Amino acid sequence: MSISGNMKTPLLLLLLLFTLGFLTKTTSSCLAAERDALLEFRAGMNGTLKRMPSWEEEDCCNWEGVVCHPTTRHVVKLKLSECIQDSKGQVHQMINSSLLALTELNHLDLSYNHFYNVPIPKFIGSFKKLKYLNLSNSFFIGGIPLEFRNLTHLRSLDLDNALDPEQQHVGDLDWLTHLSSLKHLDISGLLLPSLTDWLLPSNLHGSLTALITRGCNLISIPVSPSNVNFTSLEILDISDNHFHTTLPQWVWNITSLTHLDLGFAEFYGTIPEAIGALTSLTYLDLSNNYIEGTIPRAITHLLRLESLSLQGNQLSGSLGSWIEHLTSLTLIDLGHNILNGSVPTGIGKLSNLTSLSLCYNQLQGSVSEIHLENLTRLEVLDLSYNYLKVSFDPNWVPVFQLVLVQLSGCEIGPQIPRWLQLQTRIDALDLSNNKIAETLPSWLVNVSSSTLTSLHLSGNQIKGKLPTFSDASRLINLRLDTNQFEGQLDDLFSCNYSSTEVQLPSWSNILELSLSNNKLEGVIPLFVCNWTGLDFLHLSNNSLTGEIPYCLGESLKGLVTLNLANNILFGKIPTTFGSLLLLAQLVLNNNGFSGQLPSSLQNCTYLSYLDLSHNAFSGNIPPWMGESLQGLQVFRLGYNIFSGDIPQQLLLLEELKILDLSNNNFSGSLPYYLGNFTAMASISRSFEFTEYVDLVIPTKGGNLHYPYKSDLTTSLDFSGNNLTGEIPPEIGRLIGLHNLNLSRNHLSGKIPQELGEITLLESLDLSFNDLSGTIPNSLADLNFLSYINLSYNNLMGRIPSGSQLQTLSDPSRYMGNPRLCGPPVSSGCSVMETVDKVQKMRNFEWIWLSIAVVLGFLLGIWTFCGILLFKREWRYAYFRGIDSWYDRILLQLLFCLARLSGQD
What we know:
Blueprint: H1 2-26, H2 32-43, E1 66-68, E2 75-79, E3 107-109, E4 132-134, E5 140-142, E6 156-158, E7 163-168, E8 184-186, E9 210-212, E10 235-237, E11 259-261, E12 268-269, E13 283-285, E14 290-294, E15 307-309, E16 314-316, E17 331-333, E18 355-357, E19 364-367, H3 369-372, E20 380-382, E21 387-390, E22 404-406, E23 428-430, H4 442-450, E24 454-456, E25 477-479, E26 486-488, E27 512-514, E28 519-521, E29 536-538, E30 545-546, H5 551-555, E31 561-563, E32 568-571, E33 585-587, E34 592-595, E35 609-611, E36 616-619, H6 624-628, E37 634-636, E38 641-645, E39 658-660, E40 665-669, E41 695-699, E42 702-706, E43 715-717, E44 722-726, E45 739-741, E46 746-750, E47 763-765, E48 770-773, E49 787-789, E50 794-798, E51 819-821, H7 829-870, H8 872-903
């Protein structure tokens, strides 16, 4: 019996293996219906599906992106992320409903595709067994189909940027109440500003493990814990919204959190001690809010924390009491706060640290190799813009290999630290503003040529010729401005121009080049036109000469900023500049350019900063400048030889904050509707200039320098022209104006009372005109006025007294107006008023005397005429007498003529 039983076991095993083999053989291929459905889906993509050779095979279970069940061979997963090739917007991709044949589908990933102008297919809601759905970054149009409520088995839903932000309309999210199995929810990028209550149904609070609502334009969030009860949440990301409230208290109750991102959400207030309860946190981001106060000591309880980002707030206090306790940290970003004190040496205990950023604070003291000697994994070091002195032993050998080095303003000079020579992986190096005074060492140039993508050495005193980059194929950003480099732009490259074959510069990736404020000479070489990716070119404040290469406008299609100011360049603006469609800043001031403005510039509709001042441009201002360049915020044509009237079309420049037409030959009157300069009629400051734009504004009797971003002033300058007429009262609408200069024209009439409505006015110059009348009392109410010049006009009367005008005690600001009186001019108003009274009395007496003489004369005439009219005898006697006198005079005249004739 036992033998027989033992014999049955192998037979059963063989039978089972045969059966499994048969089943496997019969179901080794995918189902034909599902294969046809996938092929129909591909056909519906209009040829934009990337070539996937595996889709040519018979068995669809072996196709790329297709996963089948191991036994049933049903398609259960469809992973088609980034499967659509670029169609350049010419083809609309339709998702064919044939996919409904995949009845066992539980995983659908269509992320990172671009479905041009088509909505999310409603039939997706029919995949009842779907557990995973990812439509992120696919940019459908419209909203979320209500049919999604049928996906009751869904556990993960990712709609991050699933809808095109310009073509979406999202209604309510009530359909989420049906997704009771949901664990992971990402609806980032869905614009939901109209939601006033917490956007999630309460039945999901207990089940969700991940909630991501980044960039949803949300404006409301509950602060107290009463309406929120997340018990299983591990990931919470509500960043990039507009809550403008204190940090929500309920967050500190979710002890299961491992990832918390509240950055860019306009939160304010302080970080509470309750944060210490989140002991499971590995990631914390509170960056770019309005959080103030000190970092609470309770943060030391977060022993698992690996990434900490608090940058871009107003946090104060020191680092010494807490930072060295967080030994699991790999990333620290505390930049752009007001932290003070020294950098504790205990930071060296953070042996896992890969990134350390403390830039833009008020930290003091020194940083040496003692702080960094144990940080073997460190790759990013940013200590820029503090009050630190970074000083390492010249022979120190670092224990790390840095990728990013940011040490701007750290008093490193006068020499470049030698330990950098041992760093072989540096991608970006910033040693700007460090008082480095040596010539560039050859090893730095070699490192730059082979590894760097960004080199920033601005604001030093580095001498010698421009460095030569024999190979700079990786270089993206080169900034050597504000040094003492000499030579020509050609020196940047090892080009052998004497040979028959010229080695062209290999800067195929260069995006930003700044060599301003040096001692460079020569012309702008033609090979600049080969840098077709360049978007920032800054060569100002050198001694460059010649003309702008004509090819520059043809080749550098992506150029955003071009600054050639303060050189010796001449010629005309190339007409090819009209091809620079992305140009936002064009700065050519203080050169020798001439000619008229090319009409092709009207194609540069993104221009926000245009400075052509201090050149020899001529002609009229073309009307298209106001019609086409409506994004202009700074427009400067001063010190040229423009002429004609100021076109009314300039009033279309509603974003204009600085307008300078001074010292030209403009005639006619001021534009009447000056209030149409909307940006000047507002007190908001919303400039969007890139850095490296230096602005000099003639104001307050001198030239004020506004470096980099110019959101500090608004200015209107029409001085030094031939303008006539009156100052329009509409000028009072420009309540955001800081500087107004209308001097050296031929303006007449009175100073408008409405000037007193420009409450932010700091400088007012109306000198050398033909203005008359009194100075309006409203000027005494300008509390910010620090400069006024009304000299050489025809003003009269008492100078208004006010708290601010009393401080402007220079009498020269009123000279040339002999009839002005009162402080600060010397003549007292009592004497002037007495003289005026005497003069008025004399004028009054003379008027009455004149009236009496005229009346007496008229009375005598009428009396005489009346007598002749009513007395016949008198009338006859009068006319007989007239005739007698006439005869006598005529006889005497004839006698004289006869005597004269006899003498002849």
